[in-house]
Design goal:
Layout (H helix, E strand, L loop, with lengths): L1 H25 L7 H6 L30 H12 L4 H5 L10 H21 L34 H16 L13 H24 L1 H11 L1 H11 L17
Helix pairs in contact: 3-5, 5-6, 5-7, 6-7, 7-8, 7-9
Length: 249
């Protein structure tokens, strides 16, 4: 009957997933082919790579990294090398002397959006609709969520999720950013709008979930990087950077 067929299909799919998982776990990571070796190091994690060996390819300069994702990979490499060295991470690569500097800012903002997801995950059990029914930093800073047709109040956790989703959708929009190498003038102002809204996540974390903030910041230095980035490229007014400097340095 239909119920038996459905159960049988689910069991068969589960068996196939177990077989695939067993294959991945039991086989060693494939070695580079001769053609891949001749072209240089392969910058991806192979199936079966142990956690301790993730992203263990040799360091490469930006001019050595071909492809559309070269700048993103270069920034990620700098972060893995030393997340505390925010100046080295954020200061434009010399090759951008003759390129669109806003494209450098754009790539950094894409990475910040990715990295912010990791601190939001840590709010799962501490930032709830009961503990934080409204998104705010101090009582002087209360924020409405702009992810709705009309801006309105959200719980803090919903505000952060909506803001990250909206930011990701914007930077991945072909309408606003048809090219990663050259940012159209009318889209430049979107960067500062996104930066201002993302910063509120750090502000809420610092003033309402200090322990989570400090634990995350001590490891990733993300608020320090964000503050340096927003200040260097004048994407936020200094008066709006309300997390104390001694909390991020």
């Amino acid at each position: 009957n239909a119920e038996y067929m459905g159960n049988s299909s689910r069991n068969r799919n589960n068996d196939e997933r177990k077989s695939t998982c067993a294959l991945v776990m039991s086989d060693p990571a494939p070695q580079q082919t001769q053609s891949e070796t001749r072209q240089g190091p392969v910058r991806r994690n192979r199936p079966g790579t142990k956690e301790a060996n993730l992203n263990s390819w040799p360091v490469m300069g930006l001019d050595e990294s071909p492809g559309a994702f070269a700048v993103q990979e270069y920034i990620q490499q700098l972060i893995r090398e030393d997340p505390k060295n925010v100046a080295k991470i954020c200061d434009p690569h010399p090759s951008f002397d003759n390129r669109d500097i806003v494209a450098w800012q754009y790539e950094h903002l894409r990475q910040i959006i990715l990295d912010l997801n990791f601190i939001v995950i840590k709010f799962e059990n501490v930032c709830t609709p009961r503990t934080c029914p409204m998104m705010k930093a101090t009582d002087a800073y209360k924020f409405l969520c702009a992810a709705h047709p009309t801006a309105r109040s959200c719980t803090a956790i919903d505000y952060m999720l909506h803001t990250l989703d909206n930011a990701a959708a914007t930077v991945n929009s072909n309408k606003h950013f048809p090219s990663r190498a050259k940012i159209v003038p009318k889209s430049k102002e979107l960067l500062s709008q996104i930066v201002r809204r993302l910063y509120r996540i750090f502000a809420h974390a610092y003033f309402h979930h200090r322990e989570v903030f400090e634990e995350f910041e001590n490891e990733y230095h993300l608020c320090e990087r964000f503050t340096y980035f927003a200040t260097k490229f004048q994407l936020m007014a200094p008066k709006d950077l309300i997390v104390p400097k001694d909390a991020i340095q």
